[in-house]
Design a protein that fits this description.
By secondary structure, the protein is α+β, with helices and mostly antiparallel strands. The protein has two helices and two strands. It has a two-stranded antiparallel sheet. Strand 1 and strand 2 (19-23) form a beta hairpin. It is globular and about 25 Å long.
Length: 53
């Protein structure tokens, strides 16, 4: 799967409402910084943790 924002290989893929979104390492870090206190992180944290291990 490719990153949603660029053509790099996605490091993680998250799914919401049956839609998968891939994020490469740089974009994952950017999004986590932007959304660190948001509901998005809480909702997808377990999926992110599972894929980064």
């Amino acid at each position: 799967m490719q990153c949603h924002y660029c053509d790099e290989e996605a490091a993680v893929a998250v799914e919401k409402d049956h839609i998968k979104v891939g994020l490469c390492e740089p974009h994952l870090q950017d999004r986590m910084e932007e959304l660190s206190e948001s509901e998005w992180i809480e909702e997808f944290q377990s999926q992110i943790d599972d894929r980064l291990e």
